[in-house]
Amino acid sequence: LPQRPTKYRDYSSTSMDKACEAVKTGKMSLRRAAIDFGVPRSTLYDKISGKATLKGVGKKRYLTDEEEDNLVDFLIGCASVGYAKSRIEVLSIAQKIASVRHPGIGIGGICFIDNILKYP
Q: What Å distances lie between residue 37 and 15, 25, 46, 65, 76, CA to CA?
């Protein structure tokens, strides 16, 4: 028998967070929130009941989306005027940004750049 293709996570974490909030505050039923926010009902139930955590799994992110976007804009601006930054310089800048929220944090390794930034 041919297997059906498996679809994982067709929804954003923001949608799941909003759906959880709507159910917890009593604004919507679980079923209605799942439909309105486009999240799986069983996953929403698991998150509301505490069976699954509300926080995502995976690697810890050192920079927020806004910090990443600002860093990318800065790097693009530097490159556009002829001052492109090396990987080491980008790592150093990222460490300085992350240390504002997490004092004493050490982000090690050049692979950080590949793993933490969304942009090549």
A: 6, 15, 16, 21, 35
As a whole number of angstroms, the distance between CA 98 and CA 34 comes to: 35
With contact defined as beta carbons under 8 Å apart, do 91 and 114 qualify? no
Token pair listed for 114 = 């590949």
Tens digits of per-residue pLDDT, 17-39? 899 999 999 999 999 999 999 99
Does the global pTM surpass 0.70? Answer: no
Tell me the C-alpha to C-alpha distance, in Å, between residue 82 and each of 46, 69, 70, 76.
51, 20, 19, 10
CA distance 56 to 73: 26
Rounded (10°) angle between helices 41-49 and 30-37: 120
Angle at 83 between CA 106 and CA 105, to 5 degrees: 5
